Amino acid sequence: MNIEQNLKLKLQKAFSKLGKNINLSDIVIEHSRDVSHGDYATNIAMKNCRLFNKSPRDIANDIIQNIDMEGIENIEIAGPGFINFFIKNDSLQAIVKKIIEDGDNFGKGEKKNFKINVEFVSANPTGDLHVGHARGAAIGDSICRILSFAGYDVTREYYINDAGSQILHLAESIEARYKEQLGLPFEMPQDGYYGEDVKTIATTILNEDGKDVLKMSDPISFFRERGTFLELEKIKKDLKDFGVAFDVFSSELKIRSNEAVEKEIEFLKPHIYQDGKALVLKTSDYLDDKDRVIQKSNGDYTYFIPDVVYHVNKKSRGFDLLIDVLGADHHGYINRMKSALMMHGYSADTLEVELIQMVRIIKDGQEMKASKRTGNAITLRELFEEVGVDSTRYLFAMRAASGHLDFDMDLAVEQSSNNPVYYAQYAHARLCSILEQGHNIAFDIEASQLEKESEMALLKHLVSFPSAVLEAAKERAPYKITNYIHDLAECIHHFYTECRVIDTEH
RNA sequence: GCGCUUGUAGCUCAGUUGGAUAGAGUGCAACCCUCCGAAGGUUGAGGUCAUGGGUUCGACUCCCAUCAAGCGCGCCA
Questions:
Q1: CB < 7 A to strand B: residues 182-241, chain A
Q2: CA-CA distance, A136 to A139, in Å (whole number)?
Q3: Which end of chain A offers a freer environment for a tag, N or C, measured as fewer CB atoms within 10 Å?
Q4: Bridge partners of residue A85, in order along the sequence
Q5: What is the pLDDT of residues A181-227, one digit of tens each?
Q6: Which residues pair with A279 in a beta bridge?
Q7: pTM for the complete prediction?
Q8: DSSP-derived 3-state class of residue A407
Q9: Chain A 419-438, CB < 7 Å to strand B
Q10: pLDDT tens for residues A91-100?
Q11: Strand B contact nucleotides, protein CB < 7 Å
């Protein structure tokens, strides 16, 4: 039994003895910052002034007169009406045995029978992943790991936009580079991709598919298919080396097959009107601030309608919740997609969008603009090869996604020993060292000798790990875990400095 | 012009869903290894929580206005 949960139950019982009911979820147990405020504290007396119609301190007094003191050393009332709990040492010491017994499962949430689909990265296969994708990949992957550990059934998904006009531009660019390498006259398309990666792909196609591609009946389709495949292979490899894996890759082309878009439009007909030759979806009937064109005057569909098909497709696969991890520049897209899902009878919170704010790369004290087109952009691979995978991921994961992030390359690289990730790794190394040197010494699994301040602080922090996991999962906030790790490392360093662990004298 | 996001120490950022003296890293200054990894620990300086109102026992947190920054506002994706 978790100590916090236990305290909540005790408080609930004390309330019922006083003739009042309170929900466990309405009881807040805080970790006291100051040791003189005990180990745990609650503001429950202040929150329920009206319920008792008494002063907070009087209520607090009533509560502690009626509370079960099992496992509790002392209770004090402080300040305006805080109740401070001083926990008996052995209650905290018991966590050591539990952690050793649970092993890697310590803190793991119970199976929730709740299926979540997390879509992230989903970069167009038209070039290398850049730093913006890197942040999305690090945070998206961390969210998946956390949700999974917290007990949710998680599917990681990548949506490949392989049907739009951007892909056509890619195909034309590859064709131009292919001609170039054959020594033929060539012209890059206006919205073409000028990066080195396109030249590399043209070379690969020349080597693997030969010199006669242009003689095919539809060379552009060939370049499109091969180009998408090769770009995607590169993306997959970059992500894999970055420690990110996906369960499902969904292709827009496949989503569009079997006239899925036409069927979708038929289904949405009651919400569609005609504007000239174009078809418009009345998303403003729901959450959107304006209606959205789904079919252009020239007969082409906009990107939006296959996206709707895709989200409906995901939902139809039996997920309880869809999470999209998107760049913040897509925020205008949230309400229109939710509106479309609502037209299908789903509630607005069927889809949850985690926006990842922009990343600025700072080098030599200046911002480096990331541009896919110039070929000089900083890619995901460059980033983690220069900074290191662990470090890069930690630096992204440790900041809330909602804030703009300055990623200082000079700091991350040159002063890597001062990097926050090393602080945690060093604590780990020290503990490993103790285990190695003390491998033939028996453990005191009851941990009954732990009683110094730094030892109790460490135990308390260990006890709080399961609630840190729950919190991080609920908030979709990986940085709550890195914060936990930092505080844990701090506890360990204090403990290590103050206490000698290997002691054959006793 | 409208909308979303953000504004906290010199810099990069937390702040547990309205609570006790607003915290950490980094940078700066001074200390601490005959002993488990000094990539560590201790101490100090550094704040008008963008600004101005409001709500209440109590506001960095909630509401309104203003200022500043980023991003959106397309029959592009």
A1: none
A2: 5
A3: C
A4: A40, A75
A5: 999 999 888 878 887 889 999 999 999 999 999 999 999 999 999 99
A6: A274, A295
A7: 0.92
A8: strand
A9: 420, 422-423, 426, 429-430, 432-434, 437-438
A10: 889 999 999 9
A11: 2-7, 12-17, 19-21, 23-27, 35-42, 57, 70-77
